[in-house]
């Protein structure tokens, strides 16, 4: 009998499902590991006639398909997927005469924005007098100001740069079709896997300090698609195809 081993590599993609319509595929980048797990609730029947109490029938009552893997590419869309969030564009705005009140030496304040330009820092008098730059330290990129002296009153103005916020744990329940376009390193055969409907688990971790390249574990569940014929070629959860070489 001919031996058949496989060693797979390939590309994963997600396609958003909106009102039952599958959208465009989006590649997820390098994924060094990915696993499907199939589980079922098993009910066993035990006979009581032989004296050995053997199991003579097994009923698989409920099936489930789950997945887990590791994302290495952290672009804006993958970041939102990892964090179960949304990407929200924040437009530039101008803040005028923000009264910070009295401040003390060493006090650091986060201002509302990033990439600040045209900053003004004054004493807030009826005829404002600029505060000497030696009395504060402004980090325009992060939008923070630290005071190096006690000041009775500070009024600040600035213009923010446009940025994108990725919200955290705010978008549960989004559905995606999941696809795998793979190749068997041994035979060079192409393979394809599709999960009709998937939903990511909100359970995740997001490391902020890395000794090496950052990578992020994801997991979730495949959901049954009742529009597919379970006895046909597509299955309720999905299907796996070994694509024969063209003749």
TrEMBL record:
Domain of life, source organism: Bacteria
Protein name as annotated: Uncharacterized protein
Species name: Acinetobacter johnsonii
């Amino acid at each position: 009998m001919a031996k058949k081993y496989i060693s797979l590599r390939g590309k994963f993609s997600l396609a958003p499902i909106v009102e039952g319509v599958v959208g465009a595929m989006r590649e997820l980048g390098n994924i060094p590991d990915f696993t499907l797990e199939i589980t079922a609730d098993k009910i066993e029947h035990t006979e009581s006639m032989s004296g050995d109490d053997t199991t003579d029938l097994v009923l698989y009552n409920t099936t489930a398909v789950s997945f887990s893997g590791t994302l290495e590419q952290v672009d804006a869309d993958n970041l939102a997927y990892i964090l179960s969030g949304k990407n929200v564009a924040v437009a530039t705005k101008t803040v005028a005469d923000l009264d910070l009140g009295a401040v003390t030496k060493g006090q650091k304040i986060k201002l509302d924005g990033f990439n600040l330009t045209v900053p003004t820092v004054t004493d807030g008098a009826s005829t404002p007098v600029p505060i000497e730059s030696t009395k504060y330290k402004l980090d325009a990129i992060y939008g923070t100001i630290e005071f190096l002296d006690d000041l009775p009153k500070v009024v600040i103005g600035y213009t923010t740069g446009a940025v994108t916020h990725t919200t955290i744990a705010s978008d549960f329940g989004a559905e995606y079709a999941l696809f795998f376009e793979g190749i068997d390193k041994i035979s060079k055969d192409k393979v394809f896997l599709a999960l009709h409907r998937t939903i990511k688990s909100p359970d995740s971790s997001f490391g902020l300090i890395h000794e090496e390249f950052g990578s992020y574990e994801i997991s979730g569940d495949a959901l049954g698609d009742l529009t597919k014929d379970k006895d046909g070629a597509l299955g309720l959860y999905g299907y796996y195809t070994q694509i024969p070489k063209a003749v």
